[in-house]
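REVIEWER CHECKLIST
Item 1: Sequence provided? yes
Item 2: Single chain? yes
Item 3: Sequence as submitted:
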Amino acid sequence: MGRGDNREDQIDVPTGTFTAIAAGGYHSLALRTDGTLVGWGRNNEGQAVAPTGMFTTIAAGWRHSLAIRSDGMLVGWGDNGEGQTDVPTGMFTAVVAGGYHSLAIRTDGTLVGWGRNNYGQADAPKGLVAFAPPQGGAGGFGTWVDEEAEMKRRRDNAMRKALGFG
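Item 4: Structure as written out by the authors:
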């Protein structure tokens, strides 16, 4: 059930079954169980009009939205006054949206940021750009790790697999 007076061209709250939700400044997004997206709420910058396709991950900023397609590619829409929807190329596993900046994790574990950077919020921390997923691979939050140590761990694991030990 949605509330409000619809004076900002809101889109009605959707019905159906969902696997993820994200809330922006005055808009919301939801990822349906079939992988499609739906958006609603204030839509003055196009932030609530979701693109078509199949998606795995969503994020909502102040007046912009982001999603990862099922092929790992990142898409952005809505307000781009600070470059927050100028998504980088590559394959991604996670994405988040701030007020006017965005961050994502590439499939190799490196972090990338873009958009407004007046306080350094879009800069990846030096030496801490790798991301370790939660133990066991189940949901939850991962942790920042030292990039050099993480790359060594990945090389060691690859070597163990190549030698038949894992």
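Item 5: Key structural point noted by reviewer: Residues 66 and 147 are 26 Å apart (CA to CA).
Item 6: Recommendation: ____
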